[in-house]
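Researcher: Structure for this, please.
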Amino acid sequence: IWKWAWLIVLGTVLAGGTALLTSRNMLPVYQASATLRINLSGSESMDKYSALLTSQRLAQTYAQLLEKEQILEGVITRLGLDMATKDLAKAVEIQSVRDTDLIEITVKHSDPAVAQAIANEIPEVFIELEQSLQGSRYGALKASLAAEMEEAEAEIQHLQEAIAEKQADGAADGDPQLARLENDLAQVRSSYDALLGSYENIRLAEVQAGNNIILAVPARLPVEPVGPRVLLNTALAAITGAMIAAGAIFLIEYLDDTIKSPEDVDETLHLTTLGGIGRISGEK
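Model: Predicted structure, token format:
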């Protein structure tokens, strides 16, 4: 160890110094985080426990969707960022919090304001896109029910006019045609009430589906950079340099097959050393 101490020191200093200079010349990195919540507690079709489980599953699904290229492109367009989608994807980390209905969005950027804006814009773009998709899906169902309700209203109006004509002609309550018209009117009204109930349920489901994603904790403007960690990088590089130097020393010693001592003679040649010649330094 003492023989090769200079190499260990040299490796430590070179690696640590290189890491120190490199870290100091790197741009500072700021981190902003926003938290989303998937809230299904207002759903009347399931109890609180089922709503929580469904929220947790949706959180995992939404965490995957938030990283899609369509969302990132929308963020770049709305914020006017001068960066590619793949570069933004590298700066964004999205993960669902285990056993909760929360999603954490973490963004790293050299500009703290940009990091905050991206972290807050990602959920906004996703919520608008999700509401648009839900609206188009429920819109077709509402349009179909509205058409059926219009037909039912027209049928009710027609039956009411027919009953009024019968009554004007002097038909009594026991008249079979009048009874049939009244029975048909009751059935059509019942169908209309069922259609109206379905329409209101779809409207309620649409509202709940559009409001189940909440920006629980918006991102704040980061003050202190999270990187580069100069001291940590320097320490890790110095330790790594020392380990590499130590490994090189062991390799050199392992490959060295020269004879340096009487023990080496005995181990290598199996012969006895008769004597040694001393090395005297100096003019004498």
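Researcher: Any notable elements?
Model: The mean pLDDT is 87. DSSP finds eight helices and four strands in the chain.
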